[in-house]
Amino acid sequence: MSSEPLDKPSVDCTEKRVAKFLSAQSGRQRPLSTSHSEQEFLRRLTGFRQLRRVRRFALGVAVACALVGVGLFGSRLRQQEPASVALSYRVDSQIPSSDGYILVPQAAESLVAFSDGSNVRMAARTRGRVMEVNDRGARFVLEEGKVSVDIVPRAHAQWIFEAGPFRVNVHGTSFTVTWNPAAGAFDVHLTSGSISVATPIGGPEIQMRAGESLEVNLHDQTVTMEPTSQKAAPISTSADPSTLEPPRVAPPDASTRGTPASTEPRAVPAWSHRNWMAALSDNQAADIIADADRHGTAKVLDTADSADLWALANAARYVGQYPLASQALLAQRRRFPSSERACEAAFLLGRLHDADPDGPGKAIAWYDRYLLEAREGADISGALGRKMTLLQRWQRTADALSVARDYLRRFPQGTYANGARALLRSSKTGQ
């Protein structure tokens, strides 16, 4: 008796060969033997299929283990990658203040050293603040004075230097920035690398390359770009007024605002050079003081025009002759009481008394006078912020808190905003 044909789609070529062999042998065996052969065939076929399933399962397990191993290895590599860490900094190798404020005393300089090797060297009588530090760089605000900056180039670095309404975007370079808010004078000298400067005077950001110098005067609304090697000519040192160039008639002073224009030419003192402001922008403060001495300081204070008085006051501040600076500022207020410079002189007089050892009374009185006279002055934020700092320094906490609240209400993004918030937080913590 012949066996029934096997019709199983899952049987591979090996199974078919086995079935064909057994079928050929079935015709020469008895029916009982044939049944036994079929059972043997099925037993072997079942075993073969089980072995194949085991091999496939083992292969799947091996592949899965390999994938898990690769995943664990990649995870470990990711864990070993260094996380982004914010930079840190020190001021003259010391831990900085909590608000980042830095005031460089007379006849000294300070070094702000960052953990990536970048440095900011602050000249004497410079004040500024490290506003923010992150893993890409920092934001530094120059309130007044001069800084020399050396930034280490790094991928994706982002450094920002602000000076009044100016903003310098840096990636990796060396340059110096000078900012005189009273004179509205901003200077940048780029040694290496490239930067871009945003100014309040209309137009796109100014792109600068190594060896270039940028000077901006907010009062005159002028922008000068030239190679760093070019410098302004020095001021005249002649003591004889007759040897000087004829003075140029100045544009209307701020003291004439709101009055009809006069048909007569303005009287200009014969001795006035009319270039002290330019000399001040070129850091020739000592030459201005010497020139004033040759003409007689008392005469200058009584006869100089508003611009030269202003230049003399700031030059005296820069070289540390604070009594002369105070006399020039008081002369500005006395002789030109309705001018914009007279109002700004009140702010500078407050700054001259910031370090009084007998207390903040005089400084705060001048700041209050400035805040009373100025409606939209450029130094309102500075006057409020410095008043708050003085009150805090002299343990007048309640008054300092009141000024801090007023400051945040008026200047939530101002230079002293972080310090005001820190003061308010500390008062809540101490309650």
Q: State which percent range the strand residues make up.
A: 15-25%
Q: What are the secondary-structure elements, in order, as H or E? A: HHEEEEEEEEEEEEEEHHHHHHHHHH
| Rounded radius of gyration (Å) | 41 Å
Number of strands: 14
Q: How would you characterize this protein structure?
A:
With about 425 residues, the chain is of the alpha+beta class. The chain has three domains: about 15-80; about 90-225, Jelly Rolls; about 280-430, Tetratricopeptide repeat domain (Serine Threonine Protein Phosphatase 5, Tetratricopeptide repeat). The protein has helices spanning about 15-25, 30-80, 275-280, 285-295, 295-305, 305-320, 320-335, 340-350, 360-375, 380-395, 395-410, 415-430; strands spanning about 90, 100-105, 110-115, 120, 125-135, 140-150, 160-165, 165-170, 175-180, 185-190, 195-200, 205-210, 210-215, 220-225. Strands 1, 2, 3, 4, 5, 6, 7, 8, 9, 10, 11, 12, 13 and 14 form a 14-stranded mixed β-sheet that branches. Strand 13 and strand 14 form a beta hairpin. Helix 1 runs antiparallel to helix 2 and helix 7 packs antiparallel against helix 8. The longest helix has about 50 residues, at about 30-80. The chain starts with 12 loop residues before the first helix and ends with a helix.
Keywords, separated by commas or semicolons:
431 residues; alpha+beta; Jelly Rolls; Serine Threonine Protein Phosphatase 5, Tetratricopeptide repeat; 3 domains; 14-stranded mixed sheet; 12 helices
Task: Sum this structure up briefly.
This protein is an alpha+beta fold and 431 residues long.
